[in-house]
Every structure is written in C-alpha cells, then in structure tokens.
C-alpha cells in the first residue's frame, strides 16, 4: 500500500490543510491519506480539553473526500504523541516492512526535524513531502538535511498564509471564518462554542 500521513494539531483544521491533502492525492495517487491529529503534541502547548474537539473537526472536514480519512491512533495510545511511535504502529498495521510512509510536513517544522524524538530511526522510515510555509523560501537551507540521510521532496504548491492561531483569534473576535474553514468545521465550532475564551 502506498500510504501518506498528515500529522498535526489541527487546532482547528482549515482550508490550507485540505488544499494540501487534495494536492498530494491528485499528484501522487496514494492509496490512502490519513490525517492524524496529535493527542498530546510534544512541541506545542495544547489545551487537553480540546483534543476530542480537534479530532471531531478533522473527521467532519473529511467526510466528502475519497481515500482520505482520520485516525485516532494517537488518542488510543494516549501520552505524548511522538511521530516515531505512530509511524512504527502504522508500519505494523499496514504490513509496510519494506516500504516508506509518505509524510506531509511544512518547512517550519522540517527545519526543526532534528529535535524530534528518535529522529535517526524515524528518518529511515519516512519520505517527507515538504510544503513551503514562508515567503522567499530558499530550498538550499534544507540540503544539509539531505546530506544527513533525510529523504524528502520540496513541493511547489503556492504558499497560502493561513494559521490556526489567526483563525482562533478571528473566532474570538466574532469575525467571519467561512472563507478559511469548510462549512462542516464552521458549524461544529459554533455549535460547541469553541475558541471563545
């Protein structure tokens, strides 16, 4: 199976996430793309009470897509959501012993990849699909990672500047969000009174 994963806090999931997912599925024709919301992300402070809401919003956003789904793998494991442990579990689950898992990541996170848990083992298991998250990005600054054995490709999808932080602020300020989240996520946010405080 040619598998791709998209891991993140998705707090909340927005249109740029969906655009990236659709782009990789159209371009690479993966058998399956799995969104994996982090239960307890190691590099971000996340309100634990929002964990189930974040998962539910991803699930709602993906209803309309074929071969794109959400996994509760990190919710079932509890604890800190280390990517290495998740990838190892997926390899067993899908019997991918001799095949790398494709892994979507932004340049902002990829530049800090060497701080990740058990990265020397993780980099042997994944092929990174790197999306540029900044203006005037210079791909040369990632070449040192290639020399250290990281397997990656840089994608040229035009940068779309949407941040979940900005989105949460807009909700708090009662500003319109229908331009940056899908209808299902917008409805879920308002029905549950999220991001108001």
Q: What attributes characterize this protein structure?
A:
197 residues; alpha/beta; Rossmann fold; six-stranded parallel beta sheet; 9 helices; 6 strands; 39% helix
Quick summary:
With 197 residues, the protein is α/β, with parallel strands linked by helices. The chain contains 9 helices and 6 strands; from the N terminus they run E-H-E-H-E-H-H-E-H-H-E-H-E-H-H.
What is the topological layout?
Layout: E1 3-8, H1 15-28, E2 32-37, H2 51-62, E3 68-70, H3 73-77, H4 83-93, E4 101-106, H5 107-110, H6 119-125, E5 126-131, H7 143-147, E6 152-155, H8 164-172, H9 183-191
Parallel strand pairs: 1-2, 1-4, 2-3, 4-5, 5-6
Helix pairs in contact: 2-9, 4-6
Describe this structure in words.
This protein is of the alpha/beta class. It has one domain (3-161): 3-Layer(aba) Sandwich (Rossmann fold), CATH 3.40.50.620. It is built from 9 helices and 6 strands; from the N terminus they run βαβαβααβααβαβαα. It has helices at 15-28, 51-62, 73-77, 83-93, 107-110, 119-125, 143-147, 164-172, 183-191; strands at 3-8, 32-37, 68-70, 101-106, 126-131, 152-155. A 6-stranded parallel β-sheet has the order 3-2-1-4-5-6, with helices on both faces. Helix 2 runs antiparallel to helix 9 (183-191) and helix 4 (83-93) packs parallel to helix 6 (119-125). The model has no long low-confidence stretch (mean pLDDT 94).
């Amino acid at each position: 199976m040619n598998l791709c994963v998209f891991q993140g806090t998705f707090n909340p999931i927005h249109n740029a996430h969906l655009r990236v997912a659709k782009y990789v599925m159209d371009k690479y024709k993966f058998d399956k793309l799995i969104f994996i919301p982090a239960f307890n992300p190691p590099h971000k402070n996340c309100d634990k009470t929002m964990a189930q809401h974040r998962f539910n919003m991803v699930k709602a956003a993906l209803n309309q897509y074929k071969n794109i789904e959400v996994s509760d793998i990190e919710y079932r494991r509890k604890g800190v959501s280390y990517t290495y442990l998740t990838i190892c579990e997926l390899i067993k689950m899908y019997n991918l012993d001799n095949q790398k898992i494709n892994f979507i990541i932004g340049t902002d996170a990829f530049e800090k990849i060497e701080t990740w848990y058990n990265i020397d083992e993780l980099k042997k298991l994944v092929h990174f699909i790197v999306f540029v998250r900044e203006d005037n990005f210079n791909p040369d600054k990632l070449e040192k990672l290639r020399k250290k054995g990281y397997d990656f490709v840089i994608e040229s999808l035009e940068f779309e500047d949407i941040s979940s932080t900005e989105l949460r602020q807009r909700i708090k300020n009662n500003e319109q969000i229908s331009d940056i989240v899908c209808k299902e996520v917008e409805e879920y946010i308002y029905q549950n009174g999220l991001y108001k405080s």
